[in-house]
């Protein structure tokens, strides 16, 4: 365990490196500060991110830029309906040596990397989608009866379109829960789009440069886990997650009959890690209740489902989360004041 004085110095040093990393990313991925913050928070927490957005918003460029800035070996998989698990994981082939001897040799698939871009993940069949489950959770895959470790660190950044299209398959709940955050990539505002036009259509394009190495990212992930978290933040996380579970004693009245299910313990774990990462990126030594409120929607939205009646009424899951978070925060403030 790092001594408190050493921990403060390491946090301050890491904060400076993260600022340099964000500046390098912004040279190519312009104007999407919220998206960059959430993806970096996921990586600092050792998790995976699901990027939701329409085509052409720079999701692939973001992943490519991140691989450069974070010094990671990257691979890209374009998911299609005919993609098979072996296309992701790899397979064994029978080879014949010059002396006639025959033996199997394993050919690694694209999952054997440190940063995997899973493009349009919802276009693959459920069987192929499930091939990523063990890799995302355990950072290893089992092929031909043998466990094979993946790269360290290992992160999956997956994209999918938020609209129903022909040839798509919804992600199963178990796989959705493996994603630490869901990041919504939206259209840029007018000023941002002007900056993108000027920066990307000239003779010279912005170039990102390496700021981290894989070992430095692993040390940063370990440092995030050592950051102190105050009791008020812990209680806020517990109150928020438990309030979003329908038919539970702690459930908020706002979710009764509006949700089919709510977030599990993995959501609370995700919040505990990402609030630390967000505080660190903003130059603070410990997270606050405001960090919990800022991260509630991207952490919880893919871990909850509207009930049939709520969908029929047109209820918005994002608004429900915001309302519950505000209710929990107001109750906590009253308890402190009392």
From TrEMBL:
Residues 45-189 form the AAA+ ATPase domain. It holds the Pfam family AAA_lid_2. SUPFAM superfamilies: P-loop containing nucleoside triphosphate hydrolases (SSF52540). InterPro entries: AAA+_ATPase (IPR003593), ATPase_AAA-3 (IPR011703), CbbQ/NirQ/NorQ/GpvN (IPR050764), ChlI/MoxR_AAA_lid (IPR041628), P-loop_NTPase (IPR027417). PANTHER family: MAGNESIUM-CHELATASE SUBUNIT CHLD, MOXR FAMILY PROTEIN. Signal peptide: none annotated. It comes from Thioclava litoralis. CDD domains: AAA. This is MoxR family ATPase.
């Amino acid at each position: 365990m790092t001594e408190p004085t050493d921990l403060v110095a390491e946090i301050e040093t890491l904060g400076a490196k993260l600022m340099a990393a964000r500046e390098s990313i912004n040279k190519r991925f312009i104007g999407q500060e919220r998206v960059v913050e959430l993806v970096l928070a996921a990586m600092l927490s050792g998790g995976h991110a699901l990027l939701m957005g329409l085509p052409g918003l720079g999701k692939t460029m973001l992943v490519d830029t991140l691989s450069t800035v974070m010094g990671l070996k990257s691979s890209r998989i374009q998911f299609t309906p005919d993609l098979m698990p072996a296309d992701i994981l790899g397979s064994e082939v029978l080879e014949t040596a010059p002396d006639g001897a025959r033996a199997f040799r394993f050919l690694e698939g694209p999952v054997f990397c440190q940063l995997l871009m899973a493009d349009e993940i919802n276009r693959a069949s459920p069987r192929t989608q499930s091939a990523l489950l063990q890799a995302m959770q355990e950072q290893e895959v089992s092929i031909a009866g043998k466990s094979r470790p993946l790269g360290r660190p290992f992160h999956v950044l997956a994209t999918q379109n938020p609209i129903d299209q022909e040839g798509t398959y919804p992600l199963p709940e178990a796989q959705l829960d493996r994603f630490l955050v869901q990041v919504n990539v939206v259209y840029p505002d007018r000023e941002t789009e002007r900056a993108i036009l000027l920066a990307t259509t000239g003779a010279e394009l912005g170039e990102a440069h390496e700021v981290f190495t894989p070992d430095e990212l692993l040390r940063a992930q370990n440092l995030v886990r050592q950051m102190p978290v105050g009791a008020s933040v812990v209680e806020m996380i517990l109150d928020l997650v438990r309030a979003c579970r329908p038919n539970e004693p702690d459930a908020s009245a706002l979710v009764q009959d509006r949700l089919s299910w709510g977030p599990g313990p993995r959501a609370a774990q995700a919040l505990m890690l990402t609030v630390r990462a967000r505080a660190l990126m903003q130059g603070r030594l410990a997270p606050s209740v405001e960090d919990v409120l800022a991260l509630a929607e991207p952490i919880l939205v893919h871990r909850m489902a509207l009930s049939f009646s709520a969908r029929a009424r047109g209820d918005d899951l994002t608004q429900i989360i915001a309302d519950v978070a505000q209710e929990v925060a107001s109750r906590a403030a009253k308890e402190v004041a009392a």
